[in-house]
Amino acid sequence: MNLELDCRGLLCPLPVIKLAKALPTVAVGDTVTVLADDPAAATDIAAWCRMRAQELVSAAENTYVVRRLS
């Protein structure tokens, strides 16, 4: 299952907060796609994935795919 979060128009840290709340709702191995147009999202989402030991599968064109690892 892939969950999509539309965070376009939201400033950081809101996309990361929404990601943190949504990740537990998907199964381990599934992904959450975050649509975020705030330039800070690229840095913030990647850093959040490193700190939380989750996988940033891709980050391109304001679309970030995060796989739940635990």
Automatic annotation (TrEMBL):
GO terms for molecular function: transferase activity. Residues 5-29 form the UPF0033 domain. It is an enzyme of class 2 (transferase). Its EC number is 2.8.1.-. It comes from the Bacteria. Transmembrane segments: none annotated. This is Sulfurtransferase TusA family protein. It comes from Kribbella sandramycini.
